[in-house]
Write a structure and sequence with these properties.
single chain; nucleotide-binding; 48% helix; Rossmann fold; globular; 644 residues; alpha/beta
Length: 644
C-alpha cells in the first residue's frame, strides 16, 4: 500500500477551493480526478478535518483511478495522510486486508484518507469501522468528459457520447492531450472506441447460464433476457420492459443477478443505492435531490443499460411516517417517483431494477404498475441439491469429483454469500498450509468447532424441537431445523404458513409457534432463559399489527394514524394473548413430551434435519400450499430474523 505524506500546514477549505479547484491542471487525469472529487465530496468533508483527525474512505471506479485520485486528495487538504489500497497484502501465502496499521496516524493528530477500488474487500475491518465518511466516485459520464476536454483544450467539446465516457481511464487520458483542440480530443476518443470497445460489465461477472438459480429465478431471468435481446434487435420497444424489485434476505445475490443480466445481454450496468444518495455531497435535501437526478441521468446516458438501485427500503413508506418526518421525506420520495416516470417516458433502452431486504416497507406508489411493479423474490437455496449447486459454483475447478450433497445438508439455510465466504476462507486455510483445497477445509468452515457447553446445545435442541413440533401439529410445514452455530445464530426452524390470507385464528397459530420455544424451555428444559427474546418480540409485533393495522380485533381503527405507540387497550389484549398462547403451546408439548425429547436428542446428534426427516419423525400431517415463514431464536442462542 503506497503512502503520500502531506505537510502539516493545512489551509482552510475556502483557500484550497479558491487556489486549487479554480486552477485545474492541464493533465487530463488530474482534471478528471479533481472534478470527480468535487462532484462527490460533500461540503462537510472539507470542514471535518478542522475538528480533529478523521478517517475517510474514497471508493474509485477501478484500480486505474487510485493513483490519480490520491494525488488529487493530496492537493485538497495539506494535513491528510493519503493511503492507496489496490490489493490485499500477502503474508505467508495468505491474503490479508490492509490499512489497520495506518490508523496510528490518528493518534498523532493526522487525518487519513484511504483510496481503493474495493474498500470492503481490501481494507481491514478496523478501517471500515473507523471511517467517518465514505465517498464513492462515479464513473466518467459524458458531461464530465466534456468539462475536462474544455479545461485541457480551452474549447467546447461537441459530439461526446456515453460510449466515449465508458472507455478505460487510460484510454481517456491518452486521448485528451495538452495542445490539441477539443475536436481532436473527441476524434481520439472516437478512434479508441473502435480499438477497445466498451464492455457491458466486468468480465469477472458470470453469465446467467453459469449462475446457480432456483427454478423461479431461472424463469424470470430467461424471460427478461429474451426481452432485452428483443429490444436490442429492434423487435420490441423499450417501453415494454417491466421494471421490478429484487427482494429477499441479505446475501442472496440480488446485485450479482442484476450484474449478470447486464453482462449476458451485453447491456451496460449502472448502479447506485439510497444510502449513497445520503453519503455523497452534503446529505441535505438539495444534495440528495441532485444524486437522484444524477442516477437517472447516468442510466439514460448509458443505454442500453440495466440500472440497479439498491437499499430501496431506505426510502420510507410515506403512509407510515409521522407529520414531522413526512415533511422532510415527502419531497425526496416524490422526486424519486417522478424521476422513475421520466426514465419510463424517455423511451430509452433502460431496465430499472431495485433491490431490498424488506419489500413490505416500500412505499406503495413506488411499486405500482408502471414503476417497479414486478416483485422478484431472490431467496436462499431451499434444498440440499440447490445448495450443492451453489457450492459447486463457488468452488469452480476445486474438488471436481466430490459429492457436495452431504456438505450441503449441514449448510442448509445458508445464503450464497455465506457459501462464498466459506469457500474463500477454506481456500485461505489451504494456501496457508501450502496444499490444495480439501473437503475437510470446507467442512470446518460450514460446521466450525462448537465451543458451546453440552448442556447449552441440549437446551437449544429442545427449544427448536418445541418450535418444530408445535408448528407441525398446527399444520405448518417444517422445512428444516438446525442447531449449527453461525455467528450470533445458534439455531432456527424454517417453516411455512398454510395460507396467504390469514385470519385472526391463523395469526394466533403463528404466534403460538413463535412462543413454542419458550414453552419447551419451561416444559422440558431448565426453565425460562434469554433464548426466546427474539421470538417474544416477533409474536408481540405480529399481534399488535393484527389489531392495530389489519383490523382483526374488535375495531377497524388504523391506530398508527393516531399515534406511533400502541393503544393501551391493545397492549392489554396482546399481553393476555401472549400468556394464553404460551399456555396453548405448553399444552401441546405436554401431550407429546417423549416425542419432543426424542426429537431433541436426535437433533443433538445430526445437527440439521430436513423437512422430510421431520415429517418422518413426527408422522404425516395434511399440509396445504404454503408461504415461507422463518423463525429464529436469539441472544445466547443468537437471533435470526423471523417474519410472518
Amino acid at each position: 500500500m503506497a503512502e503520500h505524506e502531506i505537510d502539516d500546514d493545512y489551509d482552510a477549505a475556502a483557500r484550497f477551493a479558491r487556489d486549487v479547484l479554480t486552477k485545474p491542471p492541464l493533465h487530463a487525469g488530474e482534471c478528471l480526478a479533481l472534478e470527480a472529487l468535487r462532484k462527490a465530496l460533500p461540503r462537510k468533508a472539507y470542514e471535518m478535518t478542522e475538528h480533529g483527525p478523521r478517517v475517510f474512505i474514497i471508493q474509485v471506479p477501478d484500480a486505474h483511478w487510485v493513483e490519480a485520485v490520491s494525488k488529487a486528495v493530496s492537493t485538497l487538504a495539506k494535513s491528510i495522510v493519503v493511503k492507496t489500497a489496490i490489493e490485499r497484502s500477502s503474508v505467508s501465502k495468505v491474503e490479508v486486508p490492509v490499512g489497520a496499521d495506518d490508523l496510528r496516524h490518528l493518534q498523532r493528530g493526522r487525518s487519513v484518507a484511504f483510496i481503493s477500488q474495493d474498500p470492503t474487500g481490501i481494507l481491514d475491518p478496523a478501517v471500515l469501522a473507523a471511517a467517518d465518511l465514505t465517498v464513492t466516485l462515479r464513473p466518467i459520464d459524458a458531461a464530465l468528459l466534456r468539462k475536462v476536454i474544455r479545461q485541457v483544450s480551452g474549447n467546447i467539446a461537441r459530439g461526446v457520447t456515453a460510449e466515449m465516457a465508458a472507455l478505460p481511464l487510460r484510454a481517456v487520458i491518452n486521448a485528451i492531450r495538452p495542445g490539441l483542440s477539443a475536436r481532436d480530443c473527441v476524434a481520439n476518443l472516437s478512434r479508441s472506441i473502435v480499438v477497445a470497445p466498451m464492455k457491458a460489465a466486468p468480465s469477472s461477472v458470470p453469465l446467467l447460464t453459469e449462475l446457480p438459480l432456483t427454478v423461479n429465478m431461472r424463469r424470470w431471468a430467461d424471460t427478461t433476457l429474451a426481452d432485452l435481446s428483443a429490444v436490442s434487435a429492434g423487435h420490441l420497444g423499450a417501453e415494454a420492459l417491466v421494471y421490478g424489485v429484487l427482494e429477499g434476505p441479505p446475501g442472496t445475490g440480488k446485485t450479482l443477478l442484476a450484474q449478470s443480466l447486464a453482462q449476458t445481454s451485453g447491456w451496460n450496468f449502472v448502479s447506485s443505492s439510497v444510502g449513497q444518495w445520503f453519503t455523497t455531497r452534503d446529505g441535505a435535501l438539495g444534495g440528495v435531490a441532485r444524486n437522484i437526478k444524477d442516477f437517472i441521468d447516468t442510466a439514460l446516458a448509458s443505454e442500453p443499460a440495466v440500472a440497479f438501485l439498491d437499499e430501496l427500503d431506505g426510502l420510507p413508506d410515506r403512509a407510515q411516517l409521522d407529520a414531522r418526518s413526512r415533511d422532510w421525506w415527502t419531497p425526496v420520495v416524490t422526486l424519486c417517483l417522478t424521476e422513475i416516470d421520466r426514465l419510463r417516458a424517455s423511451g430509452k433502452s433502460v431496465l430499472l431494477l431495485g433491490g431490498t431486504n424488506y419489500f413490505n416497507r416500500l412505499d406503495t406508489a413506488l411499486v405500482r404498475p408502471g414503476r417497479l411493479q414486478n416483485r422478484i423474490s431472490v431467496l436462499p437455496p431451499a434444498t440440499r441439491e440447490e445448495l450443492a449447486e451453489v457450492f459447486r459454483f463457488y468452488l469452480g475447478p476445486d474438488l471436481p469429483d466430490t459429492d457436495l450433497v452431504a456438505l450441503a445438508q449441514l449448510g442448509l439455510g445458508a445464503t450464497p454469500a455465506m457459501v462464498q465466504g466459506w469457500t474463500k476462507d477454506a481456500r485461505a486455510v489451504a494456501r496457508g498450509a501450502g496444499r490444495s483445497l480439501a473437503l475437510a477445509d470446507l467442512m470446518a468452515q460450514v460446521v466450525p468447532s462448537d465451543d458451546r457447553r453440552p448442556a447449552d446445545i441440549k437446551a437449544i435442541a429442545l427449544h427448536e424441537a418445541g418450535h418444530a413440533l408445535v408448528a407441525h401439529r398446527l399444520g405448518h410445514a417444517v422445512d428444516m431445523i438446525s442447531i449449527i452455530s453461525q455467528g450470533r445464530t445458534g439455531g432456527f426452524v424454517s417453516s411455512s404458513l398454510p395460507t396467504s390470507v390469514m385470519t385472526l385464528g391463523h395469526v394466533h397459530d403463528v404466534a403460538t409457534v413463535m412462543l413454542a420455544g419458550r414453552a419447551a424451555d419451561l416444559t422440558l428444559g431448565g426453565g425460562a432463559n434469554t433464548g426466546a427474546e427474539h421470538d417474544i418480540e416477533q409474536a408481540t409485533r405480529l399481534l399488535i399489527n393484527a389489531y392495530e393495522k389489519q383490523g382483526l380485533g374488535a375495531h377497524l381503527l388504523y391506530a398508527p394514524a393516531m399515534s406511533a405507540r400502541p393503544l393501551p387497550a391493545t397492549i392489554a389484549t396482546v399481553s393476555e394473548d401472549l400468556d394464553r398462547l404460551l399456555g396453548r403451546a405448553v399444552a401441546i408439548l405436554n401431550a407429546e413430551r417423549d416425542l419432543t425429547q426424542r426429537m431433541a436428542k436426535h437433533l443433538v446428534g445430526v445437527q440439521v434435519m430436513t423437512g422430510d426427516e421431520v415429517l418422518a419423525f413426527l408422522g404425516s400431517h395434511p399440509i396445504a400450499p404454503s408461504l415461507p415463514l422463518r423463525s429464529g431464536h436469539g441472544d445466547d442462542y443468537a437471533a435470526s430474523q423471523a417474519c410472518a
